[in-house]
Each structure stands twice: as structure tokens, then as C-alpha cells.
Amino acid sequence: MIIICCLHSLKLASAFASTPQQHRTSSITTTTNNNKEVIDVSTIQYNHDILSLANIRYQEWMANNANPPSIYNFRLATNEIYEERCADGAIVFLARMNSSSSSNGREGGEVVGAAELSPIELKDVVINNNQQQQHLIRYVTDVVTSSTSRRLGVGSTLMNYIEQTAYNDMGTRCLLLHVEEGNDMARQFYEKLNYIYVNIDDRKDGDDNDELSDESGAALAKIVIRNDDLVIHIDSNRLAMNAGTSGQLLMMKELSEPAMSGGKGGGERIIEEQEEVVKKGFGKQSTKNLKRAKGGRS
Questions:
Q1: To 5 degrees, how large is the angle CA 189–CA 190–CA 194?
Q2: What is the mean pLDDT of residues 80-90?
Q3: Contacts of residue 206, Cβ cutoff 8 Å, sequence gap at least 6
């Protein structure tokens, strides 16, 4: 039994060895009003950051379940899924809480939030497979914040940096996300960040719009990007299927340069760009993470 535990520990240590990831290092920093603490947001920098990602997801999503999966299996699943999503262009962002006097907050601070920005869920979603239009939208998923750090601006700081990165680095003009209809707290949070609900048109055969008539039975959503005078039609059913969010409400936010300069969180935001992205991002959808993690229990 001791030998098995040692082998498991070696396997886990190997999966999360602390070697730097090759990518851009950048962050946004907000000083909270009351506690003189700094919320720092950045992309994953070290492999042990993936362990921190797994830990906060497990704590907020799994730990209180009646029969939670093994945290060991959950961590391994997170690492495996992270690598897969990384190869497909998704990026995970981590929010850390540090004291304002910390000189090494990006690596040492407690991870209190995480979210993913992804093109993966948008596969075959844009009507007529217009790649140029698909490039203008991104999907936000797996947003999680620590229950012990609520109402400190973690969520808004995290989302603000994701929006900045999407607009400035990727040319994204619109973000999409899903929210459960009964989750009033999440809906109010996104509404305060100026996300709006997307109207769904249940279009059927015989529609008089020739451009869209070949999408038989598709539930179409119209994404209006006013600053670019552009309308993008997407299949919201396929998006929900890709994301594993059937039955949830679809929300969107148009991004624009003026909106990037302010933001929320009650303090100064510092944006630093140090390197070009060499290898794109990280993470996986929570539902698939859970299914894989259920392979074993502690």
C-alpha cells in the first residue's frame, strides 16, 4: 500500500513539475479598497499553476458533493485536459490575491479565481462557416472564484483582463458565454459587466432567407457588432452542444477600445506585456473534467 501511494505521488509530481511554460507573461493588478490586497491576473506561467487551477475547481465544484471524486484523479484529469485544450487554442487565466507589499505576487499569491477563453466551442457554430467572422468571437467558460474571496472584485478583475486580452491580442470583438437561468447571482454579475442576453430564433425549413435556409431546424442567434457594422449569425444549438450547456441562457458582450481603459475593481490596473505568445493556452470544460475524474475515488 505504501509503495502504491509513493508511485501515485511520483506520477502526480511528474505531471506538475515546476518548469516554466513558454508563453507571454502579462498581468492586470487591482488594489482592493478595504484590505490593501492586490488581485493579480495572468495566464498560466508554471506547471504548478495547473495544480492550483485543479485545486480551486475541485474546492468550488466538487468538494461539497455527496460523493466527490478523488482529488488525485481530478488533478490528473485537469492536467490532461489542460494539455488538450492548450493545443486547440484555449487560454486559462488565474487570479491571485497578494498583499500590496508582495514583490513576487504572480507566482506566490493564493489563486482565488480562474476562467478560460476559448475558440473550441465555436467550431461549426458560425453559419456558412465564415472563418473571418468566427475569428471575431470567443467563448468564455469555466469561470470560478473562491467562496472565501467573494465581493472583493475578483470576478470583475478577472473578466476585465480577459476582455482586454481578447480585444488587444486576438482581435476579438465579441465574447459569448452561457449562464444557468436560475443562477440569479451569476446573471446579475454578468449584467453589471454589460453582458446582454442573445435572442434565439428557432428557424425551420422553408424560411424565406436563402442565406440561412440550409441550416434546417437550427436555432439561430444574431450577434450584432455595431462598431464594425457587422452581423454574425450563429447556430446557438450547436454552440450549446459543443459547450455542454443545453438549456442555459446565452449572453454576449461587444468589446471596444474605450471600454478597455476603465474597468472595475476599485483600483489601479497595470498592464504589462513582456513576451510574444509562443504556445497558446490551457484548461477544459468542467463537465468533461468531472467525468474523467470519476475514474477513481480516495
A1: 120
A2: 95
A3: 213
